Design the sequence.
């Protein structure tokens, strides 16, 4: 049943022994939202636990988590935050799939699996909704809750750069900074700093950068060898697919990622003009207009040629947008 | 004479035929502040001109400038925005040095060269002050003024990431987004996009990346050959000196820039613990605690060794902050 934040606050005020669920492969928004809510409910004297199928990365844990006694209690009320569908619970949390009382989310694709669901797709981050919810709970924001909310806003908007950012996002950022959010340190830790392994992968990946069609197409390649040589983990490759699109004049950015079986996972990012989803569907894949993908079981050179051949007619239909 | 924004607004209301001066090597804040003020004064029916010693880069001009008739008129009132001292006027604008009626600035080092000076060092950008000033002038913010203000905020705070960012910065960002600022496009153009030449320099520079002292020191080198090979301009190297400090565990980032005469301009960025200014003064240079520089007239290898030798005792005094 769809409901609003006011009713959600009423439900939470009456709830005891609350479990808060975050989505698998947790990011700044699901964790920031979950921990801010956890701390707010704790301030109301409730017992709370936060659960996630995957380990909580140290970069979030260090400022979101507070010391607590790990006494076990069974849940009487279960809340899911930033989880669009039940699959995103991950394996460990499937046990709660039929007993989620409340879901707070901002994904338009939310499947409405919970007893009560608050979805606001105009929110840039679920953390925006949690900020309002904490106000409705009558809890004063402390600096730890402020840090958590800020982390959610900042990571889900790419540091206030993505098009989902609104005036409301900035107003909430202002409020949590007033409440003591350590915004500079959070941005540095979550947006700026790169592991040495990531830096080394990036160096190698940049060396693979090749331009085609008068620099309108840029192609990057991440090989298994690069991962072996640098020791970089999969999650340290985040954002590399966005690199080619940042080059002025590049209309199509292509990233090839070699899989352990030697095939290539292809990711296509396009600016206005080329429909990435159409291109990828011709190669057996699919996706969105500006970001799509496909899998190619062939050698690297053959894969690049296949993509370029498929792209050619699309590029011929649109103007070169060099300045 | 120091004054406040309210008095500045009174002066501007009475002024006619206003020249607005921006600093040389113009950035998003001096131009965003200058053009927002220009458009606001034009909305009050005043004749205005904006002057800068250097050419206004296309990335700013395209959204800040509006078409206008270029009829000449002599200035009756001269305003300087975001200009801390007269030297920053550049050569072309020295002719106005003794007749600046009003200066609006946020640099604590402002020398007070104008007849009336408004300096607020708590403002992250001069654009924050111009936003307030436009309100005091009774002018309704249009979307072009909003774009200009946003550009000033965003560039002077590195996209709301630097420690100068405050709740006020975010509140003004919210207001200018409400007034129609095209924030996503501005951030993409001013913070994200890189010229192909810059990308190529970055690739070569990353290949020069070397680590010392158990990865606590990272050294980058930009040679004349790299610039020749890529055709990158000096202003396309912005931000490269900040790269090493973004690597986790790196406490000191060193960037060497080969000069046309073969000497090296060294820039040192440090995290807490190492005083960059002390290190550089031992090598004949100086600067701030976290960012300093010096010039070394020697071969590249010798320059790197000289820096490492000077750094050693400092590193021995502080703990390795690896996680």
Sequence:
């Amino acid at each position: 049943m769809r409901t609003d934040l006011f009713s959600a606050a009423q439900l939470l005020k009456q709830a005891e022994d609350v479990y808060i669920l975050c989505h698998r492969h947790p990011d700044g928004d699901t964790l920031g939202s979950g921990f801010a809510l956890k701390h707010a409910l704790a301030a109301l004297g409730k017992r709370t636990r936060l659960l996630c199928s995957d380990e909580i990365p140290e970069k979030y844990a260090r400022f979101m988590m507070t010391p607590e006694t790990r006494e076990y209690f069974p849940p009487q009320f279960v809340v899911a935050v930033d989880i669009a569908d039940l699959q995103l619970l991950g394996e460990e949390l499937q046990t709660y799939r039929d007993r989620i009382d409340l879901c707070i989310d901002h994904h338009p694709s939310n499947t409405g699996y919970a007893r009560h669901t608050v979805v606001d797709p105009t929110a840039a981050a679920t953390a925006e909704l949690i900020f309002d919810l904490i106000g409705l709970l009558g809890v004063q924001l402390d600096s730890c809750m402020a840090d958590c909310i800020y982390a959610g806003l900042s990571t889900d908007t790419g540091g206030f750069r993505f098009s989902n950012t609104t005036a409301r996002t900035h107003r909430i950022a202002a409020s949590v900074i007033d409440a003591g959010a350590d915004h500079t340190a959070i941005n540095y830790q979550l947006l700026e700093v790169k592991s040495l392994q990531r830096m080394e992968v990036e160096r190698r990946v940049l060396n693979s950068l090749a331009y085609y069609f008068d620099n309108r197409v840029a192609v990057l390649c991440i090989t298994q060898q690069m991962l072996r040589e640098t020791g970089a983990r999969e999650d340290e490759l985040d954002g590399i697919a966005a690199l080619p699109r940042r080059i002025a004049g590049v209309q199509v950015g292509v990233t090839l990622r070699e899989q352990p079986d030697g095939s290539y996972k292809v990711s296509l990012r396009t600016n206005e003009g080329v429909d990435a989803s159409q291109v990828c569907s011709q190669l057996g894949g699919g996706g969105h207009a500006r970001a799509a993908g496909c899998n190619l079981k062939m050698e690297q050179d053959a894969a690049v040629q296949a993509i370029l051949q498929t792209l050619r007619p699309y590029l011929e239909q649109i103007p070169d947008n060099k300045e």
Q: What stands out?
A: Chain B has eleven helices and eleven strands.
